Amino acid sequence: MNCEEIQESLSLYCDDGLADAERIRCDRHLEVCPVCRDELAQFRAVRVSLGTMSRPSVPADLIPVIQNAVRAEVSVQRARRNAPFGEAFVDFISVWLQPRAMRYAFSSVASIILFAAVFAALRPHMLALKEAATAFEQYNAVSSSGPYDINRPITPTNYAALRTPFNSESPSLNPNGGLATLNLANPHSHQSESTDDMVVIADVFSNGTASVADVMHAPRDRRMLDDFQAALRNNAVFVPSSLDRRAGTMRVVFSIQTVEVRDRNY
Questions:
Q1: Which residue, of 39, 102, 109, 180, is most buried by count of CB atoms within 10 Å of its CB?
Q2: Which residues of 51-85 are buried (b: 16+ CB within 10 A; e: fewer)?
Q3: Rounded to whole angstroms, how far apart are CA atoms 12 and 4?
Q4: Is residue 249 over pLDDT 80?
């Protein structure tokens, strides 16, 4: 037995409430453990102190007070039995409804509090969805005003507005930024080395610029990483945080892979 188990049993040990086998195990532990012996001494000191305390005397007026309370309750019960049927029925209904009314009232208040908490938690998301729907309608109105121009790129403001439900968790890409126009170095001609990948962690700042913070998986071709670093440094790859309504600085994980496309008409 360890000290924790022994100390849980010390109260019964002092009162001789343990079985013989448990008491023998306690005796063996107490022989080698000074901590538990000290705890046992404190229990015995408390027991001695309680045994020497004088018993409190009963107040002289306690018995008449109890008797008067019993007489009053008996009188009330007799009055209820002798009351007319209507009054007795009303008393019975009030007694029957009192605990149930309190229970239902508590349940109603708890339901109102729970509904308010859920509504408060969902309100930011509902507002974000409403703003996204409004921005999408405005964008469609502008696009439908004339023939669609494939050569006209989407603006950073419109793109950030379309991503309103998500841009607080991930920054919006700048359509005119370095990553949107990223051109990786040509891969090696050999088929086994024509594909390459890398995993990079970057810090995105409030003005939309980014910086490589760590390389989790380096590419075989060093030029691939150099091109990515140059894209981050040459132009703001993300929209400013004021458009995204996000935190000033965020950390983003990039997983980039180059794949050889043999179809020349692609």
A1: 39
A2: eeeeeeeeeeeeeeeeeeeeeeeeeeeeeeeeeee
A3: 14
A4: yes
* Pairing verdict, β 210-217 and 196-204: antiparallel
DSSP secondary structure of 147-208 = ---TTSPPPHHHHHHHTTTTTTTSPPBPTTSTTTT--PPPPPSSGGGS-EEEEEEEEE-TTS
Phi and psi of 80, rounded to 5°? -65, -40
Handedness of CA 143, 146, 148, 151 (dihedral sign): negative
Residues 6 or more apart whose Cβ sits within 8 Å of residue 172: 156, 159, 160, 163, 238, 239, 243, 244
Query: What band does 189 get if pLDDT is binned at 50, 70 and 90?
Result: very low
Looking up tokens 């009314």 gives: 101
Strand arrangement of the beta sheet that strand 250-258 belongs to: 210-217, 196-204, 250-258
Helix (H) or strand (E) run with residue 205 in it: none
Q: Are 193 and 225 in contact (CB under 8 A)?
A: no
The rounded distance, in Å, linking the Cα atoms of 186 and 104 is 73
Of 145, 146, 176, the C-alpha closest to 158 is 176
Confidence grade of residue 179 (pLDDT, cut at 50, 70, 90): confident
- In the chain, the largest separation of any two C-alpha atoms, in whole Å, equals 110
Residue 1 has pLDDT above 50, yes or no: yes
On whether the CB atoms of residues 215 and 246 are closer than 8 A, the answer is no
